[in-house]
Design brief:
Blueprint lengths: L3 E2 L19 H10 L4 E3 L7 E5 L3 E6 L6 H7 L5 E3 L2 H12 L18 H7 L7 E5 L2 H6 L2 H4 L1 H6 L2 H6 L3 E6 L2 E7 L11
Parallel strand pairs: 4-5
Antiparallel strand pairs: 1-2, 2-3, 3-4, 6-7, 7-8
């Protein structure tokens, strides 16, 4: 089966395919808004499988049973995170990756259960020598690798990171030690 990359001007035609419970909508919305992630389909007119290819992960919709074993392994390689409908895709994933498969549950967050009173109760002054600041270019470039690993993958550059996210950090002196930011370019949906 040959997958075709959808030209960015045609992305909207396929957005409805990803309006499913298992699809993390912050990632889907960012991919469709900025068209920064390749969208691939098996058939441009009537797709039975479509996926967003984040390189290290794919968000996939459709019927895995139409794929031969070889096509499945070409699409889903070892080491790639697969976000898919569990009932449809898990049996095929287990068949090919039994013993190597690590299942991770994604917690669905919602503002509906957000309690500002609870958040206010957690607020405390920082210890002496620590500060909370909005991230600027100079600070973003000083972030330790562990805190900036998502920047080149999802934003491409520090400039885009600062343009498309809300980002704050805790510093000890002038050294950033903690980061809170959206993990992907934000749209009307935001995931911190």
């Amino acid at each position: 089966m040959q997958f075709k990359e959808v030209p960015s001007e045609n992305y909207e035609k396929y957005r409805h395919l990803f309006a499913q419970e298992h699809c993390p909508q912050t990632f889907v919305d960012s991919a469709f808004t900025y068209k920064s992630v390749p969208l691939k389909v098996d058939n441009e007119e009537n797709p039975t499988i479509a996926f967003l290819d984040f390189t290290f992960a794919i968000i996939i919709v459709g019927d895995p049973d139409i794929l031969t074993d070889e096509e499945f392994l070409e699409l889903v390689s070892e080491g790639v995170v697969v976000v898919a409908d569990k009932e449809q895709w898990l049996p095929k994933l287990l068949k090919h990756f039994k013993g190597k498969l690590i299942e991770r549950r994604r917690t669905k967050m919602s503002h509906e259960h957000l309690s500002l009173e609870k958040l206010e109760s957690l607020k405390r002054p920082l210890p002496k020598g620590y500060s909370l600041e909005r991230i600027d270019k100079e600070t973003a470039e000083k972030l330790p690798n562990i805190l900036q690993v998502h920047i080149p993958v999802f934003f491409g550059s520090v400039e885009n990171f600062l343009k498309y996210t809300a980002a704050f950090c805790v510093k000890h002196g002038d050294k950033p030690i903690s980061l809170a930011s959206s993990s992907i370019p934000s749209t009307n949906l935001l995931e911190m």
